Amino acid sequence: MGDRETRCNAGGQFMDRGRMNQNGVVQPLLTDLYQITMAYAYWKSGKTDDHSVFDLFFRSNPFHGEFTIFAGLDECLRFLESFHYSESDIEYLRRTLPEGTENEFFDYLGDLTAKDVTLHAIDEGTVAFPRVPIIKVEGPLIIAQLLETTLLTLVNYASLMATNAARYRMVAGKHVNLLEFGLRRAQGPDGGLSASKYSYTGGFDGTSNVLAGKLFNIPVKGTHAHAYITSFSGIEELKARLLKHKLTAGVTGDLLELAIKYRQKLSTVLNVSMEESSEGELAAMVSYAIAFPDGFMALVDTYDVKSPAKSTNSNNITAKTVTKAVISKSNAKNLSDKRSTDINETKLPITTTSAGINMTNGWTVHPNGNIDNINNAVSTSTENDTNKNDQNMNNNNAQPHDSKYHACMSQLSQRSLSNLCKKTEKSFRSGLLNFCAVALALNDLGYQAVGIRIDSGDLAYLSCLARETFERVAERFKVQWFNKLTIVASNDINEETILSLNEQGHKIDCFGIGTHLVTCQRQPALGCVYKLVEINGQPRIKLSQDVEKVTMPGHKNAYRLYSSDGHALIDLLQKVSETPPEVGQKVLCRHPFQESKRAYVIPSRVEPLYKIYWQNGKITQKLPTLELVREKVQKSLKTLRNDHKRTLNPTPYKFAISQVSVSDNLYNFIHDLWLQNAPIGELS
Q: GO MF annotations for this entry (predicted)?
């Protein structure tokens, strides 16, 4: 068994290589079969010494945005460092490749390494743009070809994930913490680990993933689940109630007794009935506080203890049904997403019948959401008028538009919204009352609670209610740190959710984000490609009827040109033989494919984008830690104007030309080669 397999088995999926750890599944066989069959065909054709250049790039920015964060370079370099087919790899390929594959080819593979490869790349954590190569690979054709799939899989998701995380960071703002909670929703264990690593790169502050914390030195955060709260049914289940005073030696307090005392006082202060408080929830919180007195953070939305009594009328229409009718018939806007989904059986103060909800203005809302005017049933109009009314108003598919209809809809919307607020508040008050009681009890023993987590309901409304409650408690009991308690919100949060919460003036200090972050639901793939652009010094171009898929041939350098205010203006591609652009000197920048799009740029700063990261079988640059890459992301984003980074309708990153420009020399080179390679049609 080879050295690589020994390390994999001993260390698990990720091999401990010191700095950021090498994923043990990243090995030469992590590739597509056609890479190996092409390698054999190259070998048979005598092309083992052909020198090639490949560009790795993407064609469009993800998430309808105007930037991408380049990530995954560290893993690419570790892959090159360990590239070698083991004995078991060779044996597997002997069984897998078609019969007749020559044995000498397997001997060739067994000796193959990446020592003759040179890899150029932009710095990891840098903002990147479409069509500008983020990695260039030079070297023997066979080995360069064999690297394709693995490099793509290492860069694609890493860059997509880092970009997604960076977007969340921008909409959340600098002063709100972001935690990645996505392991259970990720695409398998490796997807979960990569998501934790690259969400941290993109600007998140921590993860719930313990293994990612160990492997990548990412801060690990977490509280408890609803299961912990529901595992207690009463205070009699508490096995431990005593807690040593943090500051005073020899002093021990009964945390439960203190919490009950404070709960009674808080009941009056917060105007919450003791009947609304769950004994099991209090027991669970006391238990958790005893276990973690310096890190007490509680989930506070488990119980709805005091729900309104259910009516005996089996035909009652629920607020959920009414809300559905209101939305479907009057297009009511912004009736909080969570309010419309969390309510169950709140009854509205209106008359219900088997037909539906009867309003005093004569309209009826049916259980199926249809609406009609019940007064038509007793109309005294002529027969013709009655028939007309029956057609227009009693037809379930009709859309009435008179003032009575809109008054009905307005009344339903206001009443259902009001009842929803009351319902939501009641479902939250038990947890908030019990948390405050336990937190004050901890304070008596020298400890400070951390905060609460809200996992359901109207997050903006509940966070404001919680913050107001904490401020009232701080003032009433003279405990100033209560003002600074942390409010964490989770529950299927995405970019749009945070933007909406910002508009509503939420009081949330930290978001726990899972599914939408780690699965990149808005765009599941970045779409990086790996294209041959030069062979034995001769340029190669891929032609297509879709201009976006035409490659830019030859070995190229890339430069980022900056304006006098420090913002990036444009990325410029040149042939490697060209003189680099200079500060203060006029540079003609052209669209790669549209002749009329061109502009002169006088840069105030010129940044060469490429560095050689791998050459002669070793890494040639000092690689940054994950923390430094994370800082690089934020530094690079600051070079973009705010309108490039905004979520809605961002301004394209360009200077009257395109997201990438080419020099005049490269433009002419591309079009000459295009004409040389494009077939000439014939008419007869």
A: glycosyltransferase activity; nicotinate phosphoribosyltransferase activity
What is residue 572's three-state secondary structure?
A: strand
538-547 contacts at long range (C-beta below 8 A, 24 or more positions apart): 539/669, 539/673, 541/670, 541/673, 541/674, 541/677, 543/674, 543/677, 543/678, 547/593
Q: Which helix (H) or strand (E) holds 286?
A: helix 279-291
Burial (CB count within 10 angstroms: exposed 0-12, middle 13-18, buried 19+), residue 306: middle
Q: Which of 95-109, 216-230, 422-436 has the lowest mean pLDDT?
A: 422-436
User: Which tokens is 551 given?
Assistant: 């490659």
Q: Are strands 371-373 and 363-365 parallel, antiparallel or unpaired?
A: antiparallel
Where do runs of H (alpha helix) occur along 45-187? 73-82, 87-96, 103-110, 141-146, 148-172
Measured distance CA(456)–CA(281) in Å, rounded: 17
Q: Give the chain's length.
A: 684
Query: Helices H, strands E: what count in the chain?
Result: 22, 29
| Per-residue pLDDT at 315 | 36
The two structure tokens encoding residue 510: 């930290």
Query: What is the full DSSP assignment across 458-501?
Result: -HHHHHHHHHHHHHHHHHHHT-GGGGG-EEEE-SS--HHHHHHH
* Per-position DSSP letters for 236-254, written without gaps between them: GG-S--EEE-SSSTT-EEE
Residue 657 has a pLDDT of: 53
Beta pairing, strands 242-244 & 127-128: unpaired
Q: DSSP letter at 318?
A: B
- How far apart CA 167 and CA 65 sit, in angstroms, is 9
In which residue are the tokens 């951390």 written?
Answer: 450
The interaxial angle of helices 148-172 and 495-503, nearest 10 deg, is: 10
Strand partners, 53: 138, 534
SS3 351: strand
Torsion of CA 486, 489, 490, 495, to 10 degrees: -120
pLDDT digits (tens, 9 = 90+) for 442-499: 999 999 999 999 999 999 999 999 999 999 999 999 999 999 999 999 989 999 999 9
Cβ atoms of 162 and 201 within 8 Å: the answer is: yes
Q: How many CB atoms lie within 10 A of CB 300?
A: 27
The CB-side HSE value for 269 (13 A sphere, CA atoms) comes to 19
Q: Which amino acid, residue 433? A: L
Rounded to whole angstroms, what are the CA distances from 13 to 4, 155, 199, 305, 393?
11, 19, 20, 46, 67
pLDDT tens readout for residues 553-607: 999 999 999 999 999 999 999 999 999 999 999 999 999 888 889 999 999 999 9
Residue type, 53: V
DSSP state of 111: T
Give the C-alpha distances (Å, rounded to integers) separating 297 from 58, 232, 398: 43, 17, 52
What is the rounded average pLDDT of the residues 60-71? Answer: 96
